[in-house]
Amino acid sequence: MKPLLYKKTRRVRTQPVPQAMKSHITKGDQVRVIRGDQKGQEGKVLRVLPQKGRVVVEGINIVKRHKRATQQDEGGIIEFAAPIHVSNVMLLDPKSGDPTRVRRKVGKDGTVERVAVKSGQPIPRNR
What's the CATH number where 106 sits? Predict the structure, then answer.
């Protein structure tokens, strides 16, 4: 006699699906690292990962990966910038070059502009 087969139950998510984090930093911004091993170093933002709340900064958090050779690519040790958390970097003030917090200012025509708290200067979007 065959054993009875029961339907598998569906897996229920215990944690909520992560939402994209709202960030004051965009691609092309100049930032300074304020926490961690690279504290005090500056660089340009190469990528923003809003789902994970992380940014990739040029020359910061360099890691090495060993890559196996394939028919198309050569193998070896590859160095690249790994993402760091967005809370560990601060935008640089366009006037003084110091790290600053950011406010959003809505213009009369409805456009949103980022403004440096320290100097009050607008921070241009680099797109």
Answer: 2.30.30.30
Residue 18 contacts residue 51 (beta carbons within 8 Å):
yes
10-residue averages of pLDDT along the chain (127 residues): 71 76 89 93 94 93 94 92 95 91 91 91 83
- Give a three-class secondary structure readout of the chain: CCCCCCCCCCCCCCCCCCCCCCCCCCCCCEEEECCCCCCCCEEEEEEEECCCCEEEECCCCEEEEEECCCCCCCCEEEEEECCEEHHHEEEECCCCCCECCEEEEECCCCCEEEEECCCCCEECCCC
Residue 8 belongs to some domain of the structure: no
**Model pTM?**
0.76
In a domain, 91, yes or no: yes
Residue type, 82: A
Residue-number span of the structural domain to which 93 is assigned:
30-123
Q: How many CB atoms lie under 10 A from the CB of residue 87?
A: 12
